[in-house]
Amino acid sequence: MEKEIDRLRQEVKDLEQQLKEREELINEISVPVIPSIVPETILVPVTGKLSPDRLELIFTKINEVAYRLSYTEGLHTVILDFTAISKKEIGEISAFGMYIENFRKALNLMGVETVFVGFTPSVTQDLIQSGLSIVDDLNTFLSFRAALSYLMKKRGFALQKIK
Q1: pLDDT, tens digit only, all 163 positions of the chain
Q2: What is the Cα–Cα distance from 26 to 15, expressed in whole angstroms?
Q3: pTM for this one?
Q4: How many domains does the chain have?
């Protein structure tokens, strides 16, 4: 009987370890970081429910990636794309606004520009009504394409059709 209990305890430990590894994998792939066509720029598409824990995970990962890439590749800009996010994915709008503000400030302190794209009209209205103090200071665009056009023009790049 004691051997059976020890075996079951070990099985539980093994399953807990597997669960932890899978949770880490899910966290890793839930925040994709995509290199942009514009040099020194990355895109981070944000999807899914944005609970405070998930926002913390997203912003922690982006801060770590931005810090590393600013040294290795001269990262200048992070584009956060909220196109797939509606009001129902955002829990508490004031908490969401606080994360946006803190995230922008943290990247700014690292010398990295933050561009936000894809806020829906209802999310935009709620952010304004939430009293977010930096609404006027946010660099925002309706679409990823518009943000890329802005960054290309700002940095002196142009796309040209090959003849």
Answers
A1: 888 888 888 988 988 888 877 766 565 556 788 998 899 999 999 988 888 888 888 889 899 999 999 889 899 999 999 998 888 888 788 888 888 889 999 999 999 999 999 999 988 888 888 777 777 788 999 999 999 999 999 999 888 888 8
A2: 16
A3: 0.80
A4: 2
In terms of residue numbers, what domain contains 4?
A: 1-30
Same domain flag for 110 and 133: yes
**Position 55 in a domain:** yes
Any domain includes 85: yes
The token pair that represents 22 in the structure block: 């899978």
Residue 162 is assigned to a structural domain of this protein:
no
Q: Do 41 and 1 belong to one domain?
A: no
**Same domain membership, residue 113 and residue 57:** yes
